[in-house]
Write a structure and sequence with these properties.
Blueprint: H1 7-31, H2 38-64, E1 76-81, E2 87-91, E3 97-100, E4 104-107, E5 112-117, E6 120-124, E7 130-133, E8 138-145, E9 148-162, E10 167-170, E11 175-178, E12 182-188, E13 192-199, E14 201-205, E15 214-217, E16 220-225, E17 240-242, H3 251-255, H4 258-261, E18 285-286, E19 289-293, E20 298-300, E21 304-311, E22 318-321, E23 324-325, E24 327-329, E25 334-341, E26 346-354, E27 360-370, E28 395-399, E29 405-407, E30 411-418, E31 425-428, E32 431-432, E33 442-448, E34 457-466, E35 472-482
Parallel strand pairs: 9-10, 20-27, 29-35
Antiparallel strand pairs: 1-4, 1-6, 2-3, 2-5, 5-8, 6-7, 7-9, 8-9, 9-12, 10-11, 11-14, 12-13, 13-16, 14-15, 16-17, 18-19, 19-21, 21-25, 22-23, 22-26, 24-25, 26-27, 28-30, 30-33, 31-32, 31-34, 34-35
């Protein structure tokens, strides 16, 4: 335990030390003065002085040293490994460091926090706000300043989840104050400071005050390079851009469900522009779903439209427009519903997005007006007809090659081919094949006795092919005759009655 000492207190301790050390040696030397040489008196002064000097050095080192174990007063943040393989160090004075394997307090007097591997979670006393620091992250804690937890990001990436607007994050080129209920990702390297807003907003301030304070809104990012600060005319607001695809590839975005967080990008006025507060306003956005065409409440001069959009959530497997399924392009992360009919002058169109289990991830209403008179034919539109193939050759089952197919196996792979760009989806006995890509060419299905999709006897499989507008194009019937595997009877070899099992005989 340490006690604060001023210079006067140290001198008093030093003076008392000298007096207490000298009393007894001097007394003894006086009693022996008749028999001791003069050199003995000199030695009696030198020894106590040396001892007092040593005591003084110990006191000074004790007062002015600041070991971390004795510095557990004041504000702190709690650091916890987020992953089992996380390797996290708290550096104290100098190069002294400690690896942590559980929740550990870090004080402002500690030097820095380094995440060598995995991810670290940081919490604060009496606050719901949290920080998540990625591999390579280096962070310094400044304590509570003006009522806000102050943290400096020196390197790598960090996600800040601010619940109550109670933190300030310092990057090399600017400081960031996240708003209430906001989530942002910050990144720092040797030349650039970056901020990506996934939810809420953040106030960015220039240390030099050359640029006015700027609010970065949800769905936006800001990058300030070191050389950007050399001029006198830079305004941070001019560097704000929409979120790049890069941020969606980072560990923090993926691990903390960034796609879902971006659902807060929706704005009530839906103007598709940046408002005065810096918030990005995109139209028709729900959880992971954006309608890109047509615009909401727009007017068209036809009775049919194509509805297109982007998928921002990888969990979306199905999109419907008024309960009719749209075509999904997983590679392009987009969807389209062609030739949607407009039945009246004002049309409220319901769109929904589903996951693989049928759960609704997003839904909304798209309102479209038409100036075209309902029922009147568009003179500019030429008559057209869509023709679908009806030949068996266009819907082939390539394996097994026999139909019916006889087997004793418990698992059979049924495989087929269709023409490209024709089939939207395939069902077998009303089960929709999940691995068949829309408008693709190859499909397969496993008939498996263990799963109950094939049993001993005759098994009939009805294979249905559906087109772009969910119409039935063709039906195949395939039969598997599952025969029981006959049990092999053990072979019995008769033995001769004239010999014994050992081949020996007994004579009488």
């Amino acid at each position: 335990m340490s006690f604060p000492l001023d210079s006067y207190g140290i001198l008093r301790i030093f003076r008392v030390s000298i007096i207490s050390i000298n009393i007894f040696p001097m007394t003894r030397l006086r009693n022996r003065s008749d028999s001791s040489p003069i050199g003995g008196n000199s030695f009696s002064f030198i020894v106590p002085f040396a001892i007092a000097l040593i005591v003084l050095i110990v006191i000074i080192r004790y007062v002015f040293s600041s070991p971390t174990t004795e510095n557990h007063t004041g504000s702190f943040m709690t650091v916890t490994p987020k992953q089992e393989q996380s390797e996290i160090y708290i550096y104290m004075s100098g190069d002294s460091k400690k690896r942590i394997d559980g929740a550990t307090k870090m004080y402002a007097t500690d030097s820095k926090l380094v995440v060598s591997l995995g991810e670290a979670e940081v919490g604060f006393e009496n606050s719901a706000s949290k920080l998540f620091i990625d591999k390579g992250g280096e962070v310094k804690y400044g304590g509570v300043i003006d009522g806000k937890q102050t943290v400096s990001l020196e390197n790598a990436d960090m996600l800040a989840d601010s619940s109550t607007n109670d933190m300030i994050i310092k990057l090399k080129n600017f400081s960031v104050t996240p708003s209430d209920n906001s989530v942002i990702i910050l990144s720092q390297n040797t030349i650039a400071s970056n901020i990506y807003v996934l939810k809420g907003s953040a106030l960015v301030e220039d240390y030099s005050k050359k640029s006015t304070s700027t609010s970065v809104g949800v769905g936006q990012q800001l990058t300030i390079m070191k050389n950007d600060l050399s001029g006198n005319t830079l305004q941070f607001s001019s560097k704000i851009e929409p979120l790049s695809d890069y941020i969606k590839t980072t560990n923090l975005f993926i691990n903390h469900n960034g796609d879902s967080l971006l659902s807060s990008i929706i704005s009530s006025n839906g103007t598709g522009s940046i408002d005065a507060s810096g918030s990005l306003l995109i139209k028709n956005v729900k959880t992971g779903l954006i309608i890109t065409s047509p615009e909401d409440e727009s007017t068209v001069d036809t009775n049919e439209i194509n509805i297109e959009g982007k998928l921002m959530n990888a969990e979306i497997t199905k999109v419907t427009i008024n309960d009719k399924e749209a075509l999904i392009d997983k590679e392009q992360k987009s969807f389209i519903y062609k030739s949607f009919p407009l039945a009246s002058s004002s049309n409220n169109i319901v769109y929904k997005a589903y996951d693989s289990e049928g759960g609704i991830l997003a839904k909304g209403i798209l309102t479209i007006y038409t100036s075209q008179k309902i029922g009147k034919e568009d003179a500019s539109k030429k008559p057209s007809v869509t023709t679908y193939p009806i030949s068996d050759k266009d819907f082939r089952i390539i394996s097994p090659t026999e139909n019916p197919y006889k087997t004793t196996d418990d698992v059979i792979r049924i495989e087929g081919r269709v023409n490209k760009g024709v089939v939207k989806y395939i069902t077998i006995n009303d089960y929709r094949l999940s691995k068949f890509p829309q408008l693709g060419t190859s499909w397969y299905y496993f008939a498996n006795k263990d799963y109950g999709t094939m049993n001993d006897g005759i098994n009939l499989y009805t294979i249905k092919y559906y087109g772009e507008n969910d119409e039935l194009l063709f039906t195949n019937l395939f039969t598997i005759v599952k025969e029981k595997l006959e049990e092999t009877m053990p072979t019995v070899i008769p033995t001769s009655t004239g010999t014994t099992a050992t081949g020996s005989s007994t004579q009488g």
